[in-house]
Amino acid sequence: MTRNDREYFKDFEIEHDFTTYLANGYVEYNIEECIGGSYEGYDFEILYHKEICDIHLYELIYYDERLRAIVDILGIPRYSHIEEIAEDAIRYEYE
């Protein structure tokens, strides 16, 4: 049996080039459940295999000292590498 689950995160910090970025969103999992055989005297056990299938960002922001304002960089092409770094850091943390 396979089911999906979500785990939300808020203000997940990513450090890159002396700048702190904050990400908000969720991680979506596929959870596969199956029944295993005799384990330590029990007739069966339930085994779970949890795998990340999607990382969705609502917001990716940083504080710009020059502008003295918070800047949302999600979806801006010149910051796409920061989105990739954020997704990799989130995947590493939640796996």
Description:
This protein is an alpha+beta fold and 95 residues long. It has one helix and four strands; from the N terminus they run ββββα. It has a four-stranded antiparallel β-sheet with strand order 1-2-3-4. The radius of gyration is 19 Å and the shape is elongated. The two termini are 20 Å apart.
Largest sheet: 4 strands, antiparallel
Low-confidence stretches: none
Oligomeric state as shown: single chain
> What overall geometry do the principal axes of the alpha carbons give?
elongated
Kindly report how far apart the N and C termini lie.
Answer: 20 Å
> Mind telling me the C-alpha Rg?
19 Å
Question: Fraction of residues in helices?
Answer: 10-25%
Total count of helical runs of at least 4 residues = 1
Strand percentage lies at over 45%
Number of strands: 4
**Structural class designation:** alpha+beta
Question: What's the helix-strand series?
Answer: EEEEH
Side by side, the strands of the main sheet go: 1-2-3-4
Summarize model confidence as the mean pLDDT. Answer: 89
From the structure above, extract its key features.
1 helix, alpha+beta, four-stranded antiparallel sheet, 16% helix, 95 residues
Short description:
The chain has about 100 residues and is an alpha+beta fold. About 15% of the residues lie in helices and about 60% in strands.
